[in-house]
C-alpha cells in the first residue's frame, strides 16, 4: 500500500503529506528486518520492485466506438422519449457521449495504445518523463485543456454540458486507475488523492489560461512547472517542441466549426514533434 501511494503521487515531497497516516505500519516494518530471507534475496526483490514501479505501463483506455449501442426496445424508446420531451436532458446525454470520445483521445496519448505509439514514445522516451500516474495525469490534463480552449467557443448550454461531462469522465477514470493499476481500495485514501489532483488540475488550468494571454515563454514556464514538476534537468528544445505542439493544436481546433468539433470521431490531436510552418 505504501509503495503504491508513493508510486501514485510520483513525488517524495507529496508522500510526506501522508507519512503521518502510516505510523501504524512501523511495527510491521520491524518484522521485515528479522526476515529469514537472505540479504541478497531481499536486495534483489527491492531492485525489481523499483524497476517495475518506474516503468509500470498504464492501462490503455477503451475505445468508445467499439461499445455496442443499446439494442433493447425499452432503451431505444426511453432515448426517443427523452429526445422529444426533454431537449435539455437530451443535450446533456449527447454531451456525455461526445465527452466520452474526446476523453478517450486525450487519455490515450499517455498510454501504450496501439494508435498512439508516436505520442507515447515522445512523452516518455524523448521527454524522459517518468512513467507514473502523476505523469499520465499531467499529460492528459494538458490535452484536455487544449480541448477546453475550443469548447469555450460553443453555445453557453453546450459549453457547460460538455465541460462538465469531460471533467466527470476524467475523475471517474482517475478513480478507476487508482483502484485497478495501483490496487488502492481504501475510499478514504482515494478521496484524499482525488482532492489533491483536483487542486493540481485547478492550478494547471489557471497557468495554461494565463499563458494564452502571454508569449511562448509564459506557456513554456507553465508546462515546465506542471509536466516536469520544476525539474532543473529539462532540455529547452523539448519545451520548445511541446509549446509548438500546443500552439498548433489550439490553432487547428479553432479553425473547425462547432458541428464538426462536436461530431468528429477521428484523431483530434496532431502528433507532437511534427514539422510545421508558422501558424500564428
Automatic annotation (TrEMBL):
- Region: Disordered, residue numbers: 48-67
Q: Which residues form a coiled coil?
A: none
Q: Which residues form the Ubiquinol-cytochrome c chaperone domain?
A: 126-263
Its transmembrane ranges are: none
UniProt GO cellular component terms = mitochondrion
- BP GO annotations: mitochondrial respiratory chain complex III assembly
Family, per entry: Belongs to the CBP3 family.
**Protein name, please?**
Mitochondrial respiratory chain complex III assembly protein Cbp3
Origin species:
Schizosaccharomyces osmophilus
Q: Taxonomy-wise, where does this protein's organism fall, top ranks first?
A: Eukaryota, Fungi, Dikarya, Ascomycota, Taphrinomycotina
Gene name? cbp3
